[in-house]
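User: I'm preparing a small set of examples for a lab meeting where we compare how different chains pack in three dimensions. I only have the primary sequence for this one, and I'd like the structure in token form so I can line it up with the others. Please keep the answer compact; I'll paste it straight into my notes.
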Amino acid sequence: MYVPEGMPASPFLKPGPFVAKFNGYVKTPLRSDYQFQIAVKGIASLRVNGKVVLGAENETKESEPVELARGFNKIEINYTSP
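Assistant: Understood. Below is the structure token output for the 82-residue chain.
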């Protein structure tokens, strides 16, 4: 997600800092260990199947290996803009 400085994140919001939450699923073909990466300006955290696996602030960061089950795994990303 990219929002230029001074612009609103949505036409329904005023310009300025904001919080965004993304929810979805990652479908994996096999039960195995996977790694995630966040590149962020601001603050972001990633939860996989309800467990926080990664947090970053104004940096690019990679998670430790995370075991995912075969099939669908729930992911949640919380983001706070700078």
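A couple of notes for your slides: The CA atoms of residues 42 and 82 lie 4 Å apart. DSSP finds no helices and six strands in the chain.

User: Perfect, thanks.
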